[in-house]
Amino acid sequence: MRWRRPAAEVLLVVVAAAELLTVEEDFTALPLAVCAAAVLFLPLRRRLPTVTLCATLPAMLTGFLWLPPMVAMFEVASGRSRHRTAVACVLLFAVTACPWPVGDLLTMTRQEVLTSVEAGVLMSTGPTALGLLARTRVELRARLADLTATREREQRLEAERAVIRERARLAREMHDTVAHHVGIIAVQSGALRAAETADAWKRDTAESIRRHSVQALEELRDMVGVLRASDAGAARAAVRTGLDGLRDLTDDSLLDVTAEVTAPKAAPSAEVECTVFRIVQESLNNVRKHAPNARVSVRVAPAADGRALTVEVRNTPPPGPGRPPEHVRLPEPRPEPVPEGETVAEGALPGGGYGLVGLRERAELLGGSLAAERCPDGGFVVRAVLPL
């Protein structure tokens, strides 16, 4: 915390002053001035460690104050300069081992000299070792942080590579399976249209199947390219769906649809247009599966404040058993074999149950919302609000 450093500085000064009180009776004017300067320089040891060491060495030479030079030596050793640390350690050893006045060295016995040298080694190498240890700890912490960041980056890259591999696999599967079957549908519907000459309704139906199959192949090719490119820009470039395609979508839906599309003043983004198209497309698909005889109304319009685009697809309840009007009549389904233990409604289309879930996810990704609910009259409504 921020208060810890000032508290440590005050504590260090108090301890140094307490060291002086133990020898106050031996003070003269010069040693007192030297020791007072050393105590005053202690708070500068972090910003100016070498200057603080030089300012506190005379206090150690007097023999009255040893703590400030040792603390300054610790700060010097904690720095990044090994050369400066070595010079400071030698200087501190020399000052500690030499008596004051220096001339007393000539009168010292061998035992006293060895004691002074031992004290100099301990007082110089001790703070130096602690400072080097602190510096090593800081470097190890920084290195550990770098290794952790590198590891996280490698894990992220590996996850991205795994996603790219999975996208490529999905692209291969989509191309090899869906494209094969849709291609056969397009070719056979084209041949059926060319062969049919008597019934115009059958020719139109075959042409509609062929056109939708070709469009599905084009969109599939775009999506396969997006999966292989793994690029958001490629996804936006591949989008062929927008507000201008809603009219064709409703006309080809084989349903009784009333559409009201009002474009906003500012052109919406490609993502918003694509989401609107997919919401209408999936909603019409659900009506076609669950209420094929119902009437549908599609309304796309900007909100009152102009900051959002509202999409509403509402269908009435199906009118009951019977055939739909001629212009929306579907071909009679050919009975398919039903697996043992399962039942399928007559004419039902397969569905995975993920349509509305996917639409809600699309809206939420854009920061909007989507709600789907049953109406009191038995119909169904899908309503979405997408920010512009």
Largest sheet, if any?
5 strands, mixed
- Percentage beta strand: 5-15%
- Report helical residue fraction: 55-70%
CATH top level class name of the domain at 241-322 and 354-388: Alpha Beta
The side-by-side strand order for the widest beta sheet comes to: 1-2-3-5-4
Mean pLDDT, all residues: 77
Poorly predicted segments: 322-348
Rg from Cα: 43 Å
Q: Write down how many β-strands occur, each being a DSSP E stretch of 2 or more residues.
A: 5
Can you describe this structure?
With 388 residues, the protein is of the alpha+beta class. Among the domains are: 104 residues, no CATH class; 117 residues, Heat Shock Protein 90. It has eleven helices and five strands; from the N terminus they run αααααααααβαββαββ. The protein has a five-stranded mixed sheet. α3 runs antiparallel to α4, α4 runs parallel beside α6 and α7 runs antiparallel to α8. 21% of the residues are buried. GO terms for molecular function: ATP binding; phosphorelay sensor kinase activity; protein dimerization activity. Pfam families: HATPase_c, HisKA_3. It catalyses: ATP + protein L-histidine = ADP + protein N-phospho-L-histidine. It is an enzyme of class 2 (transferase). One of its GO terms (cellular component) is membrane.
Name some characteristics of this structure.
388 residues; Heat Shock Protein 90; alpha+beta; rod-shaped; single chain; 11 helices; five-stranded mixed β-sheet
List the helices and strands and how they pair.
Elements: H1 4-21, H2 29-41, H3 49-62, H4 67-78, H5 82-97, H6 110-195, H7 200-229, H8 232-238, H9 246-251, E1 256-261, H10 270-290, E2 295-302, E3 308-315, H11 355-365, E4 369-374, E5 380-387
Parallel strand pairs: 1-2
Antiparallel strand pairs: 2-3, 3-5, 4-5
Region (Disordered): 312-342
GO molecular function, one term: ATP binding
Enzyme class: transferase
